[in-house]
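User: Predict the structure for this protein chain, please.
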Amino acid sequence: MASVNKVILVGNLGRDPEVRYLPSGEAVVNLGLATTDSWKDKDGNKQESTEWHRVSFFGRQAEVCGQYLKKGSQIYVEGSIRTKKYTDKDGVEKSSTEIRGERMQMLGGRQGMGGDGGGSSSSGAGGYGNRGGASGGSVGGAPQRQSAPAPTGNFNDAFEDDIPF
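Assistant: Here is the predicted structure, written as structure tokens:
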């Protein structure tokens, strides 16, 4: 029987991302993502519960996170759960659960993307993830680039560039 390990989160960053580089030269970023549930209890009082998630991105996605995200940014994340076991300095075996990010989309307009504020508050601004399809929207209301009709051949090769969205 097949199995699925898929996580979808929408939340806000609790701190600025810091990009590090592995010995291989590949970028890695660890994000602290908060998701908050709110409800009313039996007395009608508003209650909230916040969960913190450790999310890791690698490669170009890590660089994009470091460049465009900041504390408070709202993002959409797709990924999978990973559990790591380790031994702490006292010799106690522990485990840590994190999300291995596969796709990230910035939400909330320019304020949530490390920009200078202002601009539109588009709810689906600038996705970045696997190159399996086109992501809609432009970053923070920036004008979309007009391009010539795609040449015949591989569609993705015609639009390959360093801009992640």
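The mean pLDDT is 77.
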